[in-house]
Automatic annotation (TrEMBL):
InterPro entries: DUF192, Saro_0823-like_sf. It comes from Cytobacillus spartinae. This is DUF192 domain-containing protein.
Length: 117
């Protein structure tokens, strides 16, 4: 997966976080599955409204983004759970739980490559 440093505007100021882009079917299917705990990056899933935590080994902070990159819903999820279907979401951003705490209203500045769809 391609890694980029994405700027994120939070209430405390701008931060720059490493994010991998899941663009292919295989990348989207795998995500963090079977990954050892404590990776130091996030994964961005374009064209996504819902995720699952099957075969996960660690909990995630999950952020649902609108088309402009604004976080419209934030959730912490445990392995083997299914997340809510957020109809307004265009992207889902995942980080290992507690790594980079973001919140609804924060804005991810998306300079994403074109999707494979």
């Amino acid at each position: 997966m391609q890694t980029r440093i994405l700027p994120i505007q939070t209430r405390q100021g701008q931060v720059y976080l490493p994010v991998k882009f899941a663009l292919t079917f295989t990348q989207r299917l795998k995500g963090f599955m079977f990954t050892k705990p404590t990776p130091d990056y996030g994964i961005l899933f374009p064209n996504t409204r819902q995720i699952h935590m099957f075969f996960m080994r660690f909990p995630l902070d999950v952020y649902y983004l609108d088309q402009a990159g604004k976080i419209i819903y934030a959730d912490s999820m445990e392995p083997w759970k299914i997340g809510p279907n957020i109809r307004e979401a265009h992207y889902v951003l995942e980080f290992p739980q507690g790594l980079y705490p973001l919140q609804a209203g924060d804005h991810v500045i998306l300079h994403a490559p074109k999707t494979a769809y």
